[in-house]
Amino acid sequence: MFAKKKDFWASAYHQNAPKLLALCRRYVSDAGKAEDLMHDAFITAIHKQGQFQNKGTFEGWLTKIALNTVLMHLRQDKQFNKMLHQIPTEDSTKNTFDSDNETMSTRQLIQSIDFEANTLFEIINLLPEHHRTVFNLYVLEQFTHQQIAETLGISVGTSKSHLARARKKIQLILIQKATEMKQNQRKFMYLPILGTNASYLDKLFQKKLSNHVIQPKTLPPHLKHLFENAPIPMHTWAVYGFKGTISILTICIGLVTWKAFKTPLPSVQTSTVVTQKIHQMDFNRLQNANQVIDNQTIVQSKPILKPMMPILKPIEMRMDSPVPVIIKKQIILRDTIYQMQDDD
């Protein structure tokens, strides 16, 4: 069943807030600010709920709003914009990620460790903010460099440069952590190679952080009040996704089945009424018929014959205990006295 009006947004918050908060934390290292941005995303969703036209899932729509909220916050930061538009110098490009010259032993060392999602999340937060933003958009949000350039207002070449520096920084941190873990004989295992060149780093983060969540703090009172009084989007079934669709189908099938069982079967009362009408028709035909014997008209007197079939009272039959009923029809003929007229 669909949630009540006062429970709709509260339910959507509890289901989606952990994942949206993790998204905000990947771009904003300050935990408090990231949670405020996540709350702003829900407020924006309530105000713009009329724009949700069921083109995709409700969760995907909320994720897009949260991402736009975070990017808007970053674009308003002057320091972020300054670093974002900074043109790389020749010296700074020497340490960029060079996947072609990377040795196989480096990839195997990184892939030999089963890094946890929280570890990779912490590594992302170690990146400079402008590098982190481009890395998140390209690797985790699946943006192209052209889309990143249009979103952040930079050139495609600048986007590629920031991504290369982010990968190089991540590679160095992963090598350091993998070496420490092997030296300390911590848990490690050889994993299948995820890809070649830089793609194996991207797939590592995609695999571990695609479902990463961070539980938010207690729901603020002002947001709780807004949830209780906000209207429900028109396409509310999308909140429940596949489960909601299954519930609707189950309800429809149940209603059809219930209606089929409630349809009355032919009852004793129906059969009795039909039998009564047949006997009444026979009796009327006997009363109104003129008899002709030896070319003489016989005036039929009122017959002594009376309908022997008594009018049966309807018998109630419960559907839960059907009782077979046998109706026996019997016609009894009696002598009828006729008076002949003289032909004087």
Topology at a glance:
Elements: H1 5-27, H2 31-47, H3 58-75, H4 78-84, H5 104-111, H6 117-125, H7 129-140, H8 145-152, H9 156-183, H10 199-209, H11 221-229, H12 241-262, H13 268-288, E1 291-293, E2 296-298
Antiparallel strand pairs: 1-2
Number of strands: 2
Compute the average pLDDT: 75
Describe the oligomeric state of these chains in a short phrase: single chain
The rounded distance between the terminal residues' Cα atoms is 94 Å
Tell me what portion of residues adopts beta-strand conformation: under 5%
Share of helical residues: 55-70%
Q: How is the largest sheet built, in terms of strand order?
A: 1-2
Number of helices: 13
Structural class estimated from helices and strands:
mainly alpha
Sequence of secondary-structure elements: HHHHHHHHHHHHHEE
Spans of at least 5 consecutive residues whose pLDDT stays below 50 are 90-101, 187-196, 237-245, 266-271, 289-305
| Global geometry | elongated
Major sheet summary line: 2 strands, antiparallel
Using the CA coordinates, give the radius of gyration.
42 Å
Summed up, what is this model?
Helix content is 56%, strand content 2%.
General description of the model:
It is built from 13 helices and 2 strands. The protein has 344 residues and is mainly α. 56% of the residues lie in helices and 2% in strands. 21% of the residues are buried. The protein starts with a helix and ends in a 46-residue tail after the last strand. Helix 1 (5-27) packs across helix 2 (31-47). Strands 1-2 form a two-stranded antiparallel sheet. The chain is elongated and about 115 Å long. The longest helix is centred in the middle third of the chain and has 28 residues, at 156-183.
